[in-house]
Specification:
alpha+beta, 6-stranded mixed barrel, 14 helices
Length: 411
C-alpha cells in the first residue's frame, strides 16, 4: 500500500468518478463563501461611505446653536432664541485655546434668479473661515474675502447644484444672480461635496458675506442685534474636541452672564457622536449579514457530510479490501478526510471568484460602493477548508473504523 498515490490525488480521482454529485456538493460551499465575501464587501463599502460623508461635513466640527425660547410657558425648542452673536464667534476663536476657527452663520431659503432661470436654495451668510471649517474648496473662480465682509459686498459663491440649475450652459463665474431682487456677482463655484449623512444635498447652497446677508437679504432686525443662527467651529485636532467643547461652554456662559443655577442659553453639539452611532449601526448590519451568509457555509458542510457518508457506504467493500491487504486505519482516515477537504477547498476557490463577481455586480446594479477586504477573503477560504475538516471527520472516522471482514461481506 506504500506505492499508492498520495491521499489528495486519490481523493480527486474518487471525486471525479462521481463528478455530478461532487459538483452539487461543492455548490453549497461556493454559495456560502460567495455570500460571505459579497456581504462583507458591501458592508465595508457602507462604512467607508459613511466615513467619507463624515469627512465632507468638516473635520473636527463643533456646532453652537442658540438656546430655546419660552413664550407663555411654551418652550419652542432649540434655535428659537437669538442668543448667539458675531462677537461670540470672534471670542471663541480668540479665547479658546482648543478652537482653531469659528464662523458665524445666518441661513435662509430664498428663490434665486439668473436670466430666465430660477431656483430655490439655501442662502448662507458667513465669513471666509466657514470654508476652512467645512473643508470647502473653490473649484472655479475665488472665494470672497474679509474685505468683502467689511464692505458688505454683493458677491456670491455657488454650489454645484445651484450652478447646474441656474447656468446649465456653464460659465457661472462673473455672471449675475438676483437674491430677493438684489443683484450679486458670482465670484466662484464650490467643489462638489455630495450628500451629508442625513441625505441633505451639500451642493445646493449659496454662500455670501454675512454682513451682506443681514443688511440686504435677511432684513435689518438681525443686523442691528448682531445675532446669528449658529456658529460653526473647528477644534485644533480630534483629540481636543471634548476640551474645546468645555472651553466654549465656559466662555459663552461668562459672556452671556449666566450664573451657576441658570441653564445654558445655547447648545453645543459634537457631530462625531452622531456619526459614530451611524457607523456603529452600519458595522452591526454588516456583521449580521455576514453571519446570515455564514449559514450557507454550514449548509454546504452538511452537504459534504451527507456525500461522504454515502461514499463510505458505496465503497465499503473497497475499504474492507484495502484494510485486508495492510492499509492502516490512519490511511483510510486520511483518504476520506482528504476528499472532504478537496470538496470544501474547491468550493472555497470558486466561492471567492463568485463572491468578487457578485460584489461587482451589486455595486454596478444597485450603485452601492464596495470595499474588498483581503483578510475577509482569506478568512472565508480558510473557513471553507475548516468546514471540510469538521464535517468530513465523522464519515472518515466511520470508514477507518470499519471491520475488514464485515466490510468484505457487505452487499
Amino acid at each position: 500500500m506504500r506505492s499508492m498515490a498520495p491521499p489528495v490525488r486519490m481523493a480527486i480521482r474518487a471525486l471525479r468518478a462521481n463528478s455530478v454529485r461532487s459538483g452539487l456538493t461543492i455548490l453549497g460551499v461556493v454559495i456560502g463563501v460567495a455570500a460571505v465575501i459579497a456581504t462583507v464587501a458591501v458592508g465595508s463599502g457602507a462604512r467607508d461611505r459613511i466615513q467619507k460623508q463624515i469627512a465632507s461635513i468638516g473635520s473636527n466640527l463643533i456646532v453652537v446653536l442658540p438656546g430655546s425660547l419660552t413664550a407663555s410657558g411654551i418652550r419652542l425648542g432649540t434655535g428659537n432664541a437669538l442668543s448667539l452673536t458675531e462677537d461670540d464667534a470672534r471670542a471663541l476663536a480668540a479665547e479658546c485655546p482648543s478652537v482653531a476657527l469659528a464662523a458665524p452663520v445666518v441661513r435662509q431659503a430664498q428663490q434665486v434668479v439668473a436670466g430666465v432661470s430660477n431656483w430655490a436654495t439655501g442662502i448662507v451668510g458667513t465669513t471666509p473661515d466657514f470654508l476652512a471649517v467645512r473643508d470647502l474648496e473653490v473649484a472655479r473662480g475665488a472665494a470672497f474675502t474679509w474685505q468683502d465682509v467689511d464692505g458688505a459686498a454683493k458677491v456670491a459663491l455657488l454650489g454645484e447644484t445651484v450652478v447646474r440649475n441656474l447656468f446649465p450652459a456653464g460659465g457661472a463665474v462673473g455672471q449675475s444672480v438676483r437674491i430677493r431682487n438684489v443683484p450679486f456677482i458670482v465670484v466662484g463655484v464650490l467643489a462638489p461635496k455630495g450628500q451629508s449623512p442625513s441625505g441633505q444635498d451639500q451642493d445646493d447652497v449659496i454662500l455670501i458675506p454675512i454682513s451682506t446677508a443681514k443688511k440686504k437679504v435677511l432684513g435689518s432686525s438681525l443686523a442691528s442685534a448682531g445675532a446669528v443662527g449658529s456658529i460653526m467651529t473647528q477644534a485644533r485636532s480630534a483629540a481636543v474636541i471634548k476640551t474645546a467643547q468645555e472651553e466654549m461652554r465656559s466662555l459663552l456662559r461668562q459672556r452671556h452672564h449666566l450664573q451657576t443655577p441658570q441653564e445654558d442659553d445655547f447648545t453645543i453639539r459634537n457631530l462625531e457622536d452622531v456619526f459614530n452611532a451611524q457607523e456603529s449601526s452600519a458595522r452591526v448590519m454588516a456583521m449580521l449579514l455576514a453571519a446570515i451568509a455564514s449559514v450557507s457555509l454550514l449548509v454546504g458542510g452538511i452537504g459534504i457530510m451527507n456525500v461522504m457518508l454515502v461514499s463510505v457506504t458505496e465503497r465499503t467493500r473497497e475499504i474492507g479490501l484495502r484494510l485486508a491487504v495492510g492499509a492502516r486505519t490512519r490511511d483510510i482516515l486520511l483518504q476520506f478526510l482528504a476528499e472532504a477537504v478537496v470538496l470544501a477547498s474547491a468550493g472555497g476557490l470558486l466561492g471567492v471568484v463568485a463572491g468578487l463577481a457578485g460584489a461587482a455586480i451589486i455595486s454596478r446594479i444597485a450603485g452601492w460602493s464596495i470595499v474588498l477586504s483581503g483578510p475577509a477573503i482569506l478568512l472565508a477560504f480558510f473557513f471553507s477548508g475548516m468546514v471540510g475538516v469538521f464535517f468530513g471527520f465523522y464519515p472518515a472516522q466511520k470508514a477507518a473504523l470499519l471491520d475488514p471482514i464485515e466490510a468484505l461481506h457487505y452487499e
